[in-house]
Amino acid sequence: MSTSFPPAPSLHEIKEAHHRILPFIHRTPVLTCQGINRLVKAELWFKCENLQKVGAFKARGATNAVRSLDSGQLRKGVATHSSGNHAQALSWTARLAGTTAHIVMPTNSNRVKVDAVKEYGGLITFCEPTLESRETTLNTVLQETGAVEIHPYNNLKIIAGQATSTVELLQEKKDLEIVMAPVGGGGLLSGTALACHYLSPGTRVIAAEPTGADDAYRSFTQRTLIPSVDPDTIADGLRTSLGSLTFPIILALVTQILTVQEESIVLAMRLLWERMKVIVEPSAAVPLAALLEGHAGLRGKRIGIILSGGNADLDHLPWNL
Amino acid sequence: MSTSFPPAPSLHEIKEAHHRILPFIHRTPVLTCQGINRLVKAELWFKCENLQKVGAFKARGATNAVRSLDSGQLRKGVATHSSGNHAQALSWTARLAGTTAHIVMPTNSNRVKVDAVKEYGGLITFCEPTLESRETTLNTVLQETGAVEIHPYNNLKIIAGQATSTVELLQEKKDLEIVMAPVGGGGLLSGTALACHYLSPGTRVIAAEPTGADDAYRSFTQRTLIPSVDPDTIADGLRTSLGSLTFPIILALVTQILTVQEESIVLAMRLLWERMKVIVEPSAAVPLAALLEGHAGLRGKRIGIILSGGNADLDHLPWNL
């Protein structure tokens, strides 16, 4: 990798991450669905991270980050702010490693995700749903506990961990023309892009994002990091801003960021439930939503899609709202 | 196999069936869930036939039956009466084989299943929801079309096909103490029992059935085939009676049939959705319901469970009724 390339995990570091986390995570299946292929006129391979431990790809990055700590660091615990799946993943993997996760969560977090963090043994401190309140509250927690902060995405160990999902996808399906992932903070997307860059350089990486939270699209287009302000989308995992580490990787390696309407997200989510028989949360349905909207360049292609998570609230399904 | 054994597919015929259907079906994943294991205090491996083509194990048997016909038979089409998943499976596999499926369905069939049959190209004739009306209507269809009847379960090719799910499960997980399956007409259960008998004779087969449709339990206990009369259960795939071919195999090879309450079925279904992130229909949740009810002999065991299907109606979820 040339010296002008932004700081990023090397192929060796991604392989090490994969080796490190393998005893703890699921090797998730890659599913196909002819009915959906016919509908979107493309050939899709879905990497089912919704079937991952804690119901999301976040188990990969969190496990890599926690298992990379030395015993002295581990003893004091780990801490983070997260709207949901990273919080669950960190709580789960911290307990498995014999330590404690301190979780700062906004008060408007999805109930299912809050309950899950508690069940996995995470210690929750609630804060206002603003980036400022999250950061202030987290700093207080860090000072009080001496815990190590594990940022949900702006962390090279996290990025390396998230890359391993695409490593497995490319092992299973070698000739993908495109890999698609949703983009929130960019941990999954930057990891996906790195894995393709190293292992299948001919494969283009295309991200998808809700129009109501299109900070990544705008940042990508204007080549400057624009924070997410008042995001308005059902895809609660994608409301965050890109990070100083994830954005440069995305700028360097991602081909395109597509934006999609809320109605398409709900339609794509329902399609995955009804036809592929898997539970996905709204964020995970965003790449398929882009296919349903018929964006140019996707038709007829062999496309891998990372289904990022499955932590949906069964009592509040979007098609019943 | 001794001469006193009832008519049943041989191991060779089951292996032939597997070879015959492999190009057309999914090799479905086997999933595990630590959260569910902790809850029921057993180690479970779920064979996900809900992720099978047409969303149910029925794709296996129907494909084996249709692909075993000669070209003259195939030309005239196939026909069946079915409350749902077999109808979808036969329609799907008939079209794939270049022929037509004539489907007799009761008027009270699940809407999702009726729509799916139409989408797969099946030609539906509706009848009253009684066994008599089904059979009379089917006979008319058979006379008019010259089609070959493919019974949903009382057919050795169907039984051999359904056995292949357990063949794959046992390939993946060799030391199961118990395999569990739901029982309706007994096609899946007899196939499951045969596969264990041939390939893992130390593995016991335990069936589960709704208390509101406990004809298999009563038949098994009294060792005489008692038809299902006015079954009352949410598990719409399990309302049928055992058949003259499936019942003797079940009597010979199944260890036990457990009955479960409706509330346990709904709880188990929701648990699989919420924790394992897969869509299952009520029938598929019946074995886990038996575990939730704490039936003796299951605790602490290594248990394979066939998740039979995923064709749930997303607009009428049982926890919203």
Helix/strand layout:
The structure is a homodimer of 321-residue chains.
Chain A: H1 11-21, E1 30-31, H2 34-40, E2 43-48, H3 58-67, H4 71-75, E3 78-81, H5 85-96, E4 101-106, H6 111-119, E5 123-127, H7 131-145, E6 148-149, H8 156-172, E7 178-182, H9 187-199, E8 204-210, H10 215-222, H11 246-253, E9 256-260, H12 262-276, H13 286-292, E10 302-307
Summed up:
The structure is a homodimer of 321-residue chains. The first copy, chain A, contains 13 helices and ten strands.
Structure notes:
- The structure is a homodimer of 321-residue chains.
- In chain A, strands 1-2-10-7-8-9 form a 6-stranded mixed beta sheet, sandwiched between helices.
- In chain A, 43% of the residues lie in helices and 15% in strands.
- Chain A folds into 2 domains: 11-56 and 156-320, Rossmann fold; 59-149, Rossmann fold, CATH 3.40.50.
- Chain A is globular and about 55 Å long.
- Chain A has helices spanning 11-21, 34-40, 58-67, 71-75, 85-96, 111-119, 131-145, 156-172, 187-199, 215-222, 246-253, 262-276, 286-292, and strands spanning 30-31, 43-48, 78-81, 101-106, 123-127, 148-149, 178-182, 204-210, 256-260, 302-307.
- The A-B interface holds A 26, 29, 31-32, 34-35, 50-51, 53, 55, 112, 119, 270, 273-274, 276-280, 310, 314-315, 317, 319-320 and B 26, 29, 31-32, 34-35, 50-51, 53, 55, 112, 119, 270, 273-274, 276-280, 310, 314-315, 317, 319-320.
